[in-house]
Amino acid sequence: MITQMKKYTFLVFHRDYEPFLTQLRDLGVVHITQKAAGLIEENESLQTALQHEDELRRLIKQGAPDQMIQERAAVEQRIADAKTAMQQAAVWGEFDPARIQALKEAGYTLRFFSCSDSAYKEEWGLQVNTIDGKAYFVQVIGANDEPVDLSETAATELPQPEKSAAQWQMEIEHLNGLLAAANARIEAWQKANMERLEKELKEARQHIDWTRVSLSTDRLAEGALCLFEGFCPIDKEPELNAMLAKAEVYYEETDPVAEDATPVKLHNNRFAKLFEVFTGMYGWPTYGEFDPTPILAPFYLLFFAMCMGDAGYGLVLIAFGLLTYYKKVNIEMFKGLGPIIATLGVGTTIVGLFLGTFFGMPLLEASWYPEALKHLIISGNVMGFDAQMVLAIGIGVFHICLAMVVKALCYTKRFGFAETLSVWGWVLLIVGGLIVLSVAALLNLPTEVTKWTIISIAVVSALAIYIFNKPGRNPLLNIGAGLWDTYNMATGLLGDVLSYVRLYALGLAGGMLGGAFNSIALMVLGEHPTWQWLPFLLILLFGHVLNILMSALGAFVHPLRLTFVEYFKNSGYEGKGQLYQPFKK
Asked: Is residue 121 part of a domain?
């Protein structure tokens, strides 16, 4: 839900302006209304401050000045090159590069080649080594000798090694020492400077916020008076009013109106709060909109769980989420996401039991799974279609109908009932029609009752959609607008509903792939396993880790699509609001 806000207008004498701003910043509850973003480009001082802030953030993130980072990177590259050269030299065994140089000075030329061991011929040169089916040989060519032409053979000429493998190993050890020294210098620099940089970044951020507020203040009476606006959550209103009662400033407190750029502060329970990050990915609601998070949260959890579709994978997610939360696993991209990962894991485990899959194993066929729980598994066919696919479509229909009802309620609150008759007409036609048909089927209502109820709904809906969709407008224009809405509904709703098939398809694909890895592993294991246990376990581990990663990626992306496209489109959600960010230290 969205916290109610109060709008404050402050009028301050110029001598009291900075002390008053300091008091507001110390209190930290007022979101100051900022002027157009063009001020940022126009103000040179603010641009300089923003650039300084970016530089500080970059320096803190990389952990050292550019020169130190570049020096370390250069040493790391030299180590990588040396390791490659050592691998290339190792095939020639141990040798002394000085002896090769002495042969050159004596008039001999050495050429180095490789080919498959089966293709090698003695007349091509002296074989030095054979590794992994490849022969390595050298041609020693005197000043008056005619070299053997290998251009039309399977041999490949290789560069002459500069050093032996042992010499390269010594070089790598030396470079590792340089790398350790570079890391030590960086670590010492961080100990000496990082705390100062963090403090400087906070001061820079504070200066930028102060400058933005100052630029958003109107100077009246030749600069003698300062006028600016802000918003305060209603639960913080007593604190602000208590501070204002002691300050010698004039202020007005009013309720925000539609024209105000009122920020939004979301207030949700612990469960829904986990999913506010997804709301923010699309865009925050405006002050007059409906916060989609309380509805987004349970549906995203359900959609994710259906796309994963495996109870065993849910247990893995729970474990990973808890390890991340307690910082036993430290992966930067999952920082702070432990609770939501564990929550998605719980949902996946529960839904996976209803879908009947556990690490790729069909629970209906598992002898160890209790028979009482097998009755809860969704299986079989409904009207010739897989029951789980029908379930996915049914969830999609409910989700879209819910979106239409939310749209009607939200639009009525924002624009009034008269301006939303068309929206209510579609809700009555589609949602009302589905409810009547469902009740008629369940309660076996008489055909005549059902027919006349549907006709009544259709007539009332048609009047709202085609005649009264815009009060006071030309009826012909209303009819045209209604026909256009009808076209969009007819072409859009079917596609929207069918999009929910992906909930079934992704879960099915993940379960089948997991089952395939199980089958391959069992084939390798055989009936009387001995050493086969090792490849059996490796196949299971690799296969299910790969399947979990792919399934989790699909389960993350596709529920977002169903929410951002199908649900938000049908609920009329715009997501163009501004998040409440109070002026504070």
From this structure: yes
